[in-house]
Amino acid sequence: MSASRKIGPVRIRAHKRDGVETGKWHVDVPASLTASGRRMRPLFDSFKEASEVAKRLRRELETQTLGLASRTQSGLTFTRAAEMWEEAETHRVDTLKKRAISLETDKARLKSALAFFGSTDVGLITEAQLTAFQRVRLRAGRAPETVNSDVKSVFKVLKWAFKNKRVRELPQVEPIPTEPRDFEAPDEAGLIKLIEGLPARLYLPVWFLAETGCRTGEAFNLRWEDVNLETGSVMIRSKEGWTPKTRSSRRRVFVAGSLLEALRAAPQEGAYVFPGRNADRPITNIKKAFETARKRAGLEPPPGFQKLTPHSLRKAYATRCSVGGVPERILQANLGHSPGSKVTNQYYVFASEQARRDAALPLPVPPRLAPKLAKSGNTAPRPSDRDHRPGG
Length: 392
Prior knowledge:
The chain folds into three domains: 4-163, no CATH class; 188-348, Intergrase catalytic core (hpI Integrase, Chain A, Orthogonal Bundle); 363-392, no CATH class. Helix content is 43%, strand content 8%. It contains 16 helices and seven strands. The strands form two sheets. It has a four-stranded antiparallel beta sheet. Strands 5-6-7 form a three-stranded antiparallel beta sheet, with no helix packed on it. α4 runs antiparallel to α5 and α6 (188-196) crosses α10.
């Protein structure tokens, strides 16, 4: 393939480093065609992605100059804005206002945006460009949920620029619709099978996750100084190198019964309650072992349902508590959600098939329909059915 191809008024060029092609491609837009009066050269992972964007720009140029005329140049490229945003977020991590792992996640999600917007002035990013970014990511095989997360990462940088008066306004873009996926919480027998299928060193931490609904990071960073083995209380709080997700995440959770006894019997060989292979370091990742144990336990989700993961033990806990009658305010406190948050019911409490089946409360047969039912061979509801109807 040629190292250069012209599409309308723009040209696609192979990206080179030290004279060697890297496999990536530039869309080279001359300064005469941009509202900023500066050359634009966004970088893409493949010729196909670059070609799609070049064709879109050609179509846009038939009616306007890149769709940028209505916006104001800031003098700050998206790449530079992202660097300044990262510096500000690092300060937040250093002052325990943000978790280090959250910043790493944000940076990972920004990679595709940096490749797409790169040298684009942040003040000139439009809805049309954001939509094109969505289209490119979808055509690259990314799920709608992933693309929406990628766009959110773009807006984190743009909102920083707006807050610091580097841009006058923020563009708008419609998120990609996603199909909701239901979740069937495993019963107690399923959870026990899951735990028994894990390596022995993971029995206790996964048992703790299932019985408390804590986030994995909260559990894995627990230190013995956070646990009162006499009262069964566990403090989720900031410590060197780690901080809870939100202010509401700083809380006290309680354990009792067999789990508490197991914690009391656990060896205290290091600072961490659930150490990794090195006693002086916490567990960091159990996804692979968890997936193996899930399959051994036969916990395969029905089609269209979410797969059971370490994080979904939190959803299973919330669902189990809700079905068991735990008040929402208490559940929110246990999960570390803020009072009145919609997140609890929207994302963590699921209506199981059995719970919905139990909610099917039949009415008694209307007298005028009874003869027809008798003639068809059907019978009236049993007394036990009528006993469970509303008001019965």
